[in-house]
Sequence to fold (179 residues):
Amino acid sequence: MSSEAVILLETVNFAAEKHRNQRRKDAEQTPYINHPIGVARILSHEGGITDIEVLQAALLHDTVEDTDTSIGELQAIFGQTVARIVQEVTDDKALPKHERKRQQVEHAPHASHQAKLVKLADKLYNLRDLNRCTPTGWSAERVQEYFVWAAQVVRGLRGTNPALERHLEELFKQRGVEL
Ligand SMILES: Nc1nc2c(ncn2[C@@H]2O[C@H](COP(=O)(O)OP(=O)(O)O)[C@@H](OP(=O)(O)OP(=O)(O)O)[C@H]2O)c(=O)[nH]1
Ligand SMILES: [Mn+2]
Fold:
């Protein structure tokens, strides 16, 4: 087996263990790990990305925000580059929600190319997930607001990956949201 395959299996296993008790917000309570795996898969399968550190960061992208994982732990196990990309896509959970959302819009244009790729794929996955089913407790208005906010973030990520941006553009168009 190639060393990159070994590395990706180590990474997905680490993420699966960290997210083991988490579920998505859908009625079926899908295992949370489906999301980071799907984000990495969008990057490789649809975005044509072969940069293994980007694919690893995609698998790990919600571990620091949503589990007990620290950036130092990621750095020790997966190296500085992977840890730095995850850091860049991690919201500061100490901030109030509206402030976190505002900072994503503000920070998006200044992220590294690698972090922009992960952010594009994360938004693409989550918007498709919203089209698939509405999270428990979300109104139609809240879903629409998520699309409007996501478009503001994606605006700052443009010029990064034409294929992913084309898919996102189409989803916004279907909702009547200007990109
Ligand atoms: N569409 C969808 N999203 C779900 C579901 N279950 C969990 N999520 C997560 O919920 C987040 C979006 O919900 P919000 O209410 O806006 O954010 P919050 O969880 O951070 O408070 C996303 O976090 P994130 O990946 O960190 O991205 P971001 O939206 O914070 O950028 C997404 O992954 C689900 O069933 N459907
Ligand atoms: Mn995510």
Observations:
- The chain has a mean pLDDT of 98.
- The pocket of guanosine-5',3'-tetraphosphate (ligand 1) is lined by residues 24-26, 35, 62, 65, 97, 122, 126, 129-130, 135, 146 (CB under 6 Å).
